[in-house]
Amino acid sequence: MITKCSGMQHILNGFLRYRAKLRGELIEKFKIATVNLNPQAILITCVDSRIVASRITQANPGEILITRNPGSLVPNYNVLPPNTSRPEEAALELACLHDNIDTVAIAGHADCKAMNLVHDNRHQIFKSPTTEKESVLKSWLMANSVPTIHKYFEYEKGDFKKPAKFSITNGRTFEAYIDPENAYPNNDKFSMINTLIQLENLKHYSFLKEPLEKKEIHPYALWLDIYNGDILVFCFKEKRFVKLNDESYQKLVSDLNMD
Prior knowledge:
The protein has 2 domains: 35 residues, no CATH class; 221 residues, Beta-carbonic Anhydrase, Chain A (3-Layer(aba) Sandwich). Helix 5 packs across helix 8 and helix 7 packs across helix 8. The protein has 10 helices and 8 strands. It has a 6-stranded mixed sheet with strand order 2-1-3-6-7-8, with helices on both faces. Strands 4-5 form a two-stranded antiparallel ribbon. The longest helix is centred in the last third of the chain and has 16 residues. By secondary structure, the protein is of the alpha/beta class. The N and C termini lie far apart (58 Å). Strand 1, helix 3 and strand 2 form a beta-alpha-beta unit. Keywords: Lyase, Metal-binding, Zinc. Reversible hydration of carbon dioxide. Its EC number is 4.2.1.1. Belongs to the beta-class carbonic anhydrase family. Its cofactor is Zn(2+).
């Protein structure tokens, strides 16, 4: 009879596998990273257990900072209560001011439970507030997703055939098509839009405003299709998410270098 192990036992089992197979290799990499810590990027992604960020990026210790929250959000704290905790801002400050990274990547994904929740409740923003107490998760997501909801309605009005405009800084905008071929369900379209909205939110952080304007900090959007393992990268030149593969790699690298 096979018994199901507890959550903590599952974690401990993983640690034992790490000790047996990876510890020796990683100790040497930890030593190198400690002496010469030089991360190249910060990745903001979702807490979803299916998103194994360090494995997907194949990052070694010291190469990439990773911060996670439900929905891969970069909150605009200007529209939130003053006493709101600001962990995402703290992580970006650590990365950009202390570790001097120049790349911020926002990574959304298919079937995002956080974005599905917002998508299902998108019409709520037009209703009068109620006294009914909502869950912390829903309240936080809805408070941070109003721009995504409005942009989704803009795309929906054009049947997702027309592009919409996004703003990285006041003088730096781009247009984006979202799945005009209708290959993905609407909740996944919503998740893609949300990923691009987070690029807009970076400019609301005072220490990022000038570096973004001077193009010293480079923001990018990624989207993981968990159904088939594909990584989609937003291509500013093509104004859309492009599947990363051997054929598209050079085109996407060229687009990165245009920034």
